[in-house]
């Protein structure tokens, strides 16, 4: 579960990215974060995996006040958080298998568990036959599938997806969305920042709209609500 109580994010240059945010996202939800460019979506997302700290207020991730967590303990908090980025952020010198396995190695998973688990998630994302390929040998859609496999390999309670279809063509974008929906059906919370109007309006889920650092709309089965 994710909770924010009266959360403000003010950057050193004085920009108020978020102002008085109050929100709760329960386990198993699928939530779109929408809004104009510069509205505060990225700051909102980054608070969830402690890339940023709130200036004021409380952010609770699975009951843990992340503002109070010391930096050296952040990797422990993130063990139950998967993150998917627009630009994939794969390690270029590692194969698809190695990129996913690295996430398990980072939390010191037993070696005997790594291979079967990595193969399991690569099968889920449809890339078992491409597991030995380097990122440069994969299409954009395939790279994003590897990124998703890496995000879920440690069985996170929720996945944060920041514009996961932003660099993909429409066909690959829909494939990624159907994959995220399947992961959500298996019980993982999905929080997805997006500018993709068609996806939001077709695959209806909860929509949280942010404008000028404030939540202006929070509705189940909502629409995108902005022009392309």
UniProtKB/TrEMBL annotation:
SMART domains: AAA (SM00382). It is a peripheral membrane protein. GO terms for molecular function: ATP binding; ATP hydrolysis activity; transmembrane transporter activity. Its main location: membrane. Signal peptide: none annotated. Residues 2-227 form the ABC transporter domain. Pfam families: ABC_tran. It comes from the Bacteria. GO terms for cellular component: plasma membrane. Keywords: ATP-binding, Cell cycle, Cell division, Cell membrane, Membrane, Nucleotide-binding, Transport. PANTHER family: CELL DIVISION ATP-BINDING PROTEIN FTSE (PTHR24220:SF470), IMPORT ATP-BINDING PROTEIN (PTHR24220). Part of the ABC transporter FtsEX involved in cellular division. Homodimer. Forms a membrane-associated complex with FtsX. Belongs to the ABC transporter superfamily. This is Cell division ATP-binding protein FtsE. It comes from Thermoactinomyces mirandus.
């Amino acid at each position: 579960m994710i909770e924010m109580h009266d959360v403000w994010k003010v950057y050193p240059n004085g920009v108020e990215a978020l102002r008085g945010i109050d929100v709760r996202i329960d386990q198993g939800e699928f939530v779109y974060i929408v809004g104009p460019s510069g509205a505060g979506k990225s700051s909102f997302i980054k608070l969830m995996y402690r890339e940023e700290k709130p200036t004021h207020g409380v952010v609770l991730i699975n009951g843990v006040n992340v503002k109070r967590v010391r930096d050296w303990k952040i990797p422990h908090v993130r063990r139950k958080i998967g993150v998917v980025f627009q630009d994939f952020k794969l390690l270029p010198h590692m194969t698809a298998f190695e990129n996913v396995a690295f996430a398990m190695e980072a939390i010191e998973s037993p070696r005997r568990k790594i291979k079967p688990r990595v193969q399991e998630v690569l099968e889920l994302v449809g890339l078992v036959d491409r597991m030995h390929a380097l990122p440069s040998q994969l299409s954009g859609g395939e790279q994003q599938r590897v990124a998703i496999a890496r995000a879920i390999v440690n069985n996170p309670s929720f996945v944060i997806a920041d514009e996961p279809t932003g660099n993909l063509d429409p066909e690959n974008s829909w494939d990624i969305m159907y994959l995220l929906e399947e992961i959500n059906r298996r019980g993982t919370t999905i929080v997805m920042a997006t500018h993709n109007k068609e996806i939001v309006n077709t695959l209806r889920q909860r929509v949280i709209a942010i404008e000028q650092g404030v939540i202006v709309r929070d509705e189940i089965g909502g629409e995108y609500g902005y022009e392309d």
